[in-house]
Design brief:
globular; mainly alpha; 0% strand; 4 helices
Length: 98
C-alpha cells in the first residue's frame, strides 16, 4: 500500500502537474519541464497544507502568482487526490521508489 505522499507523487505525474511545475522531488517531469517553468518551482519546498488545499480546490480564490499573472487551473480533483497531493507538497520529502 502506498502512503498518501507516495500516491501524491504518482498523481503529480498522472495529472500533468509537471506541465507547469518543476519538481526535482518528482523526477519524471523535472528535466523535461526546465524550459516551461510556468508555475512556481516546487523542488525541495514544503508548503502549508491549507494553502496547497486551497490552490488545488479553489485556485481563483487566491491571487495570481508572479509577474506574468499565472493562475493555477482548476483540475477538478477528487478529495482523495487533493489529500494525496497535499501530503506530497506539505509533508516530509518523498522520493521515487527504486
Amino acid at each position: 500500500a502506498l502512503t498518501p505522499a507516495e500516491r501524491g507523487r504518482h498523481l503529480f505525474v498522472a495529472k500533468g502537474c509537471g506541465t507547469c511545475h518543476v519538481n526535482g522531488d518528482v523526477p519524471e517531469f523535472a528535466e523535461a519541464n526546465e524550459s516551461h517553468k510556468l508555475g512556481p518551482e516546487l523542488t525541495g519546498r514544503r508548503l502549508e497544507a491549507q494553502y496547497v488545499r486551497q490552490r488545488l480546490t479553489d485556485p481563483r480564490s487566491l491571487p495570481a502568482i508572479g509577474n506574468a499573472g499565472v493562475r493555477m487551473p482548476n483540475l477538478e480533483l477528487a478529495e482523495p487526490e487533493v489529500g494525496a497531493l497535499v501530503a506530497l507538497l506539505s509533508g516530509p520529502k518523498v522520493t521515487a521508489a527504486n
